[in-house]
Design brief:
The complex is a heterodimer of chains A (about 240) and B (about 325). Chain A is mainly alpha-helical. Chain A has eleven helices and no strands. Chain A is globular, with a radius of gyration of 18 Å. Chain A starts with a helix and ends with a helix. Chain B folds into two domains: about 220 residues, P-loop containing nucleotide triphosphate hydrolases (Rossmann fold, 3-Layer(aba) Sandwich), CATH 3.40.50.300; about 80 residues, Alpha-Beta Plaits. Chain B has a six-stranded mixed beta sheet with strand order 6-7-8-3-9-10, sandwiched between helices. In chain B, strands 11, 12, 13, 14 and 15 form a five-stranded antiparallel beta sheet that branches. A four-stranded antiparallel beta sheet of chain B has the order 2-1-4-5. Classes of the chains: A mainly alpha (about 240), B alpha/beta (about 325).
């Protein structure tokens, strides 16, 4: 996994030094601040205010995760730099993991910088540190799952815009599963509801400061599934 | 170093390469010569373990490339037509990254990167972002990443593409410098390039090997034809009459040249400044006989040279004929 570390470092350097990385990070923080102002200000209850902040921030994180991830492989293919990786002794899993964890680390930095917002609520209201932690864990896991979806979309398309559309389409589909499940009968109703990306696992748990292991497992499973698909897709395209 | 057996590549139902078979020894510099679309890049990308062949076997340094491409990749350096670069990285950072990817030990990395920078003469831009460099410098960075880990085999696909004449000369010098340390494969459709840099040539056409060997071997095997261009002037005082302007001048020149033994074809004289240029074809080198005949006929000899190099003749004849060779 040495190559994964090497690729991780390069990608992190790109996020931190490039104008796109800086703009994306700044925009994410701005929108999270706006989410706090718009959604959090609707209520006087600090617990509710925190939930509303997480509600708005989850949308921001989904968008940012798509932006951060769709370029990861498609840009390399578009510019031809993928040939350096393809002709080096690097495994497909190392390429995918190096890139994914760099995007995840950058997302974690954005989340870490935004912590001042819930700390402001905590200083004036009655919320606990664990509520903040669980909410942030939820944002992190949700972001991880969307990043993995974006990486997968990025392995499919050469054009970043196409990858973004494909990634967004998969995310929207997973966000609609809960609504779709309400029109069905069990057991399909329960299965689709559990596969939903946001309603059950984020809104029903993390957003309210409630930690359920099954929600965490769900996001880890989605992340793993789409990373696995990414590796397999890259394998097929690399040595075809 | 490389053994290729019945290698072919199809895209859908369309054949891009093969079947081709050839061998390349350690330390050789071999040129893949062919027109655009001849299959050169496909062949090189297969050897670089970027493309999987549809059929056939490839062995690099004793390793089956199809069975263990990962191991083969450790032994090669590849410069594609468009160098794979990251514009936001500095030259040094990029070469360190490339060295790391190729499993260079940390203790050797700095030394090898500095060596690659020295060999490719990148010292003055070593700390510049690649995105700020000229095309010539980027091509050199591409070459540096291909050799930074000292691979046994260096594969260069059209290394002088898009370079200006000065940069081409510099790139050729760099490639010459690689010959002692690596086995080198170069693809090009520029004859002078492979002629000047390679020990041996593989001529590809329509995905097949049409000829293989040194330049001299190819010329000898194909029974080369000499194509000479001669430029003469017909002075009014020449022994041959010069009465009716251009028509008479052309007749005079043609009659002098067709009398030379061994000339198989005399082209139509074309006006060139104050003289006439004529193409002559012969089975052997008749430049001395031509110059004597022209002077003895009282014509002024302004210029006499090969219209095409031997390699050019061989290449064009092979490509025109298009008949594949079984072994290379």
């Amino acid at each position: 996994m040495r190559a994964a570390t090497i690729i991780f470092r390069r990608e992190m350097g790109t996020y931190l030094k490039s104008i796109v990385g800086r703009i994306t990070g700044s925009l994410a923080l701005l929108l999270m601040g706006v989410a706090f102002q718009v959604f959090g200000a609707k209520t006087q209850l600090s617990g509710e205010m925190l939930s509303q902040f997480f509600w708005g921030s989850s949308g921001v994180i989904i968008g940012v995760a798509i932006i951060l991830s769709v370029r990861l492989v498609s840009e390399e293919r578009q510019t031809g730099s993928i040939l350096l990786l393809n002709t080096s002794p690097v495994r497909e899993a190392e390429i995918i993991l190096g890139k994914f964890f760099a995007a995840l680390a950058f997302l974690a930095i954005i989340l870490a910088v935004s912590v001042y917002i819930p700390l402001l609520i905590k200083s004036e209201g009655k919320i606990t540190g664990s509520q903040i932690f669980v909410g942030y864990l939820g944002l992190f896991l949700l972001g991880s799952a969307v990043l993995a979806i974006g990486v997968f979309a990025s392995t499919l398309a050469k054009q970043q815009i196409v990858a973004a559309v494909v990634g967004a389409a998969i995310v929207v589909l997973l966000l609609l599963l809960y609504q779709l499940s309400r029109k069905l009968d069990p057991p399909m109703k329960d299965i689709l509801a559990e596969l939903d990306l946001w309603w059950i696992h984020f809104q029903g748990g993390f957003m309210k400061g409630v930690f359920n292991l099954k929600d965490a497992v769900y996001y880890v499973a989605v992340t793993y599934f789409f990373l696995l698909l990414s590796v397999k897709t890259l394998e097929m395209k690399r040595w075809q | 170093m490389i053994q290729v057996s019945k290698l072919s590549k199809y895209y859908g139902g369309k054949r891009a390469l093969g079947p081709v078979s050839f061998e390349i020894d350690d330390g050789e510099t071999v040129g893949f010569l062919g027109l655009n679309g001849a299959g050169k890049t496909t062949a090189l990308r297969i050897l670089a373990c970027d493309l999987r062949p549809s059929a056939g076997a490839v062995n690099v340094g004793g390793i089956d490339a199809l069975g263990d491409p990962h191991e083969v990749r450790k032994r090669i350096g590849f410069l594609p037509e468009n160098p794979p670069l990251y514009p936001e990285m500095t030259v040094t950072a990029f070469l360190e990254f490339a060295a790391d990817l190729r499993r260079v030990a940390k203790v050797d990395r700095k030394k090898l990167v500095n060596e690659a920078i020295d060999v490719t003469d990148l010292g003055e831009v070593a700390e510049d972002p690649i995105g700020n460099l000229s095309h010539g410098f980027r091509q050199r960075v591409g070459l540096a990443q291909a050799i930074v880990h000292k691979p046994a085999l260096v594969i260069l696909d059209e290394p002088t593409r898009g370079l200006d004449p000065k940069q081409i000369v510099e790139m050729r010098k760099l490639i010459h410098g690689l010959k002692d340390r690596h086995t080198v494969l170069i693809s090009s459709h520029i004859l002078a390039e492979v002629s000047q840099t390679c020990d041996r040539l593989l001529i590809l056409g329509q995905g097949r090997i049409l000829g293989a060997g040194t330049e001299a071997e190819l010329a000898a095997h194909e029974g080369n034809v000499n194509l000479v261009s001669v430029t003469v002037r017909v002075p009014p005082s020449s022994g041959e009459p010069y009465r009716d302007g251009e028509a008479d001048a052309k007749k005079t020149i043609a009659s002098v040249l067709t009398r030379i033994d061994g000339i198989t074809e005399v082209g139509e004289p074309q006006s060139r400044g104050d003289g006439w240029a004529v193409s002559l074809t012969s089975a052997k080198d008749l430049r001395a006989e031509i110059s004597r005949a022209v002077v003895q006929a009282g014509l002024d000899l302004l210029k006499l040279d090969y219209a095409r190099s031997e390699l050019e003749n061989t290449f064009l004849r092979l490509v025109d004929t298009g008949a594949p060779r079984a072994e290379a």
